[in-house]
Amino acid sequence: MNQSDTEILKALVAKRHEVVDSLEESDAVVVNSCAVVGFTERKVLKEIKRLKQAGKRVILTGCLPGANPASAQASGADVVLPLKHIAAINSALDGHLAIEAAPVVKSELPKLRHRDSAIAIVAISEGCLGACSYCATRFARGKLRSFPVNSIVKEVESALEQGYREIQLTSQDTAVYGRDIETTLPELLGEIIDLPYEFRVRVGMMNPTYAREIFDELLDAYSNEKIYKFLHLPVQSGDDEVLRHMRRGYRVADFMELVADFRRRFPESTLSTDVIVGYPTESDESFDKTYRLIEEIKPEILNITRFSPRPGTEAAKLRDIHDWIKKERSRRLTKLMRSIGMERNSRYAGKKLRVLVTKHGKGNTLLARSDAYRQVVLKEGEIGEFRDVKIRKVRPTYLIA
Ligand code: SF4
Predict the structure, then answer these.
(1) 105 part of a folded domain
(2) pLDDT tens digits, residue range 11-35?
(3) In 3D, which of 9, 3, 5, 201 has the Cα closest to residue 93?
(4) Which of 22, 79, 216, 363 is deepest in the core (most CB within 10 A)?
């Protein structure tokens, strides 16, 4: 979502100014900040200090102004531009900030995307309906605002016309898309897959609480070959008590039911989930439940975050757990995921797959995605083309073809 905002900021700035890649050449710097955890916020503030010492004019935007206003105001940036006003970036650069009243419809704003990638990020909504106890993102992104179906479809079509072939639909919670404009995510997917091109759609993360209310229709929409069999469903904890404290709105059993339904429908698929380790009320027993849950469902992708108290959140009022405990729990899950990754990928050894080449990899390799959204590394191919390949080697997080 932040990367999509950067593409909007670049396109708007390029209308009036020259966008350069090197800091040395620049007169001013736009910092599109993330504030999801304390470590990241400290990095952002350190960078702003460094830029000011280098004599740059600094515009601070992104999530920090909304997630921690006091910290943003004290950051030393010349202008603090809240996210919902990114359309005013040029007046901020020119020094006379003119805020427009109406919130922007990001799907109608221009984007300056990477040319050397087949991936186009398309934001479908901003904000969510959640009230998770640890989350400051909701302070920055606000309540759910879905962008109109026709403007999203137009944006996807324009990206396809420009040669992009992987459309990443993103928001804080794609499952609640359309609830404020009388439509749904499955309906939106229905419109997008009708576009007359060969392409793939990656559906972004969704909160299990709202995913289960649209799941049957969603799985029907997913049965179209244009939709990657990829589900990003953050569970956050394997302990119902901790989930209740987090105010996530579902139980572990609900999450497991969604996973089982998804895998029954699409045995060849990729499940991505997230866990927070070290939530203040997470005891050793609670963490063991999370560990056993991951052992049981064997996700293909696991994003592990160490709990970080965010200002203004309920969880920040609770006594924090020692860092070494968080590190140890994170280390144990990382180790477990290495063996799960190998086990889940080993069934592809020697298999033939049809993949979409999406971007450049390390050295002179190319990265591609199978229809089950497996990461595949190739030596030959063109960005944006579909290729038939044979899997030669298997690694925990990718395949070599
Ligand atoms: S669903 Fe929860 S974690 Fe996600 S953005 Fe909303 S409040 Fe934050």
Answers:
(1) no
(2) 999 999 999 999 999 999 999 999 9
(3) 9
(4) 79
The pLDDT of residue 81 is 93
Residue span of the structural domain in which 198 resides: 113-223
* Whether residue 192 is found in the same domain as residue 238: no
CA pair distance 347, 387, nearest whole angstrom: 20
Where is average pLDDT lowest: 101-105, 126-130, 350-354, 382-386? Answer: 101-105
- Residues 342, 241, single domain; the answer is yes
Scan for tokens 């229905």, then name that residue: 190
- For a substitution probing ligand 1, which of 37, 138, 314 has the most ligand atoms within 8 Å of its CB? 138
270 and 340 within one domain: yes
Residue finishing a domain among 170, 195, 223:
223
* Residues framing ligand 1 (Cβ under 6 A): 128, 130-132, 135, 137-138, 172-173, 207
Tens digits of residue pLDDT in 239-275: 999 999 999 999 999 999 999 999 999 999 999 999 9
- Binned at pLDDT 50, 70 and 90, residue 133 comes out as very high
**Residue 367: C-alpha distances to residues 80, 157, 213, 337 (Å):** 37, 23, 34, 21
CATH number reported for the structural domain that contains residue 25 in this entry: 3.40.50.2300
| Whole-number pLDDT of residue 103 | 64
* Predicted confidence band of residue 98 (pLDDT cuts 50, 70, 90): low
Q: State which of 1, 126, 172, 243 you would mutate to test the pocket of ligand 1, scoring each by most atoms of that ligand within 8 A of its C-beta.
A: 172
Contacts 24+ apart (CB under 8 A), 285-288: 285/239, 286/237, 286/238, 286/239, 286/241, 286/242, 287/239, 287/329
- Check whether residue 126 and residue 215 sit in a common domain: yes
- Nearest protein Cα to ligand 1, atom 4: 172
Last residue of a domain, one of 186, 203, 223: 223
Q: How many domains does the chain have?
A: 4
Does residue 324 have a pLDDT over 80?
Answer: yes
